[in-house]
Automatic annotation (TrEMBL):
Residues 19-215 form the ABC transmembrane type-1 domain. Keywords: Membrane, Transmembrane, Transmembrane helix. Gene3D superfamilies: ABC transporter type 1, transmembrane domain. This is CydC protein. InterPro entries: ABC1_TM_dom, ABC1_TM_sf. It holds the Pfam family ABC_membrane.
Length: 215
């Protein structure tokens, strides 16, 4: 975690777009929950109302149908905006990371970089930095959004039953804490092997290209 601190400090330059992406991600989740809940109730209520002619005539189809359309539009629009905001922040972070990497590499003399193959340097500039952009896009934003939604869910359910809200949100919080570590442990070795394979591939390709000039 300490190794990531210098890179996390770069996030403060893009805090506005990152915060916007987080808010839009939460909006997307809320709209999805609202759409799922309302559409489920609408289908069930319409089925019950259709059992008799009297209830079918009295049932209001228009308001729930409008709510379903509203949540659908909000979810689509917020998802699109969230993609724009998070990827805009990610691209700017990649620019800053590559600039930071070049500033660290340029002062180094040839003696300091002795023993480092050019393919390894290429891998550091491309693969390692590209991996870091997933830190915000694939980890920080989903984890933060799900945690905030968990708090909102607790407040909503506790309005009906505090004991049920505690059990439900406590279980979900346990899953939120445990699952990332489970997937981390399961994916650590394949991830390291994949990065090593990419490094070897880039080194070999660069050596072949450099060898063509001599041929």
């Amino acid at each position: 975690m300490k190794a990531l601190l210098p890179f996390i400090k770069l996030f403060k330059h893009q805090w506005l777009m990152m915060f916007t992406g987080l808010i839009l991600s939460i909006t997307t989740l809320m709209a999805g929950i609202g759409l799922l809940s309302l559409s489920g109730w609408f289908l069930s209520a319409a089925a019950v109302a259709g059992l008799t002619a009297a209830t079918a005539m009295m049932f209001n189809y228009f308001t729930p149908a409008g709510g379903v359309r509203f949540f659908s539009i909000v979810r689509t629009a917020s998802r699109y905006g969230e993609r724009l905001a998070t990827h805009e922040a990610t691209f700017k972070l990649l620019t800053q990371l590559r600039t930071w990497a070049w500033r660290k590499l340029m002062p180094l003399s040839a003696s300091n970089m002795q023993g480092i193959r050019q393919g390894d340097l290429l891998n550091r500039l491309v693969a390692d930095i590209d991996t870091l952009d997933h830190l915000y896009l694939r980890l920080i934003t989903p984890m933060a959004a799900s945690l905030l939604m968990l708090g909102a869910l607790y407040l909503f359910v506790s309005w009906f039953d505090a004991h049920l809200a505690l059990i439900l949100c406590g279980s979900l919080l346990s899953v939120w804490l445990v699952l990332p570590w489970v997937f981390y442990l399961l994916g650590r070795k394949p991830g390291v092997d994949l990065l090593e394979s990419k490094r070897v591939y880039r080194v070999q390709v660069l050596e072949i290209v450099q060898g063509l000039a001599e041929i």
